[in-house]
Structures are given as structure tokens and as C-alpha cells.
Fold:
Amino acid sequence: MDTGTFRGIITFLLIVAFIGITWWAYSRRRKPDFDEAAQLPFADDDEIPQPNRDSNASPRSNREQDDNGDSRTNKGDRNI
Structure:
């Protein structure tokens, strides 16, 4: 079996897989599942408390923020 034959077999298998996945995705049996999944972004998640994204960070007071400078006013390594 030479390289051309091997590539042809692989191409044929990929085309069959593509057609099979496309047929599965557009079948009538899958429509209710996909309709439900399409509504997930609009689901009401207000009941679940959102965790703090940065739970390891220590809280800083306003004075510490003023002493260290804000990123908008920070001048880098320049000591003032």
C-alpha cells in the first residue's frame, strides 16, 4: 500500500465521519436537545451565589491603594 492509497482511505473515512456527524446534528431526534441548549444563556442563575473570582487576594484599604498608586497614575519604577 503506497502513500497515495493511504491518503485516499483517510480522506474517505473523514468524509464519511463528516457526513455522519452532520446527519446526526440535523436529525429530528436532536432538535429538542439543541433547542434546550440554545436557551441556556437566557436561564435565570440569580439563585446561585457567584464566588469571588480572586479569593486568595488580601483586601486592601483605600489608604494602601492611595500609597501604592493607581494603575492609571502609576509611573512605573519611578520613586516619588
About this structure: The chain has a mean pLDDT of 77. The helical segments are 3-25, 31-38, 62-68.
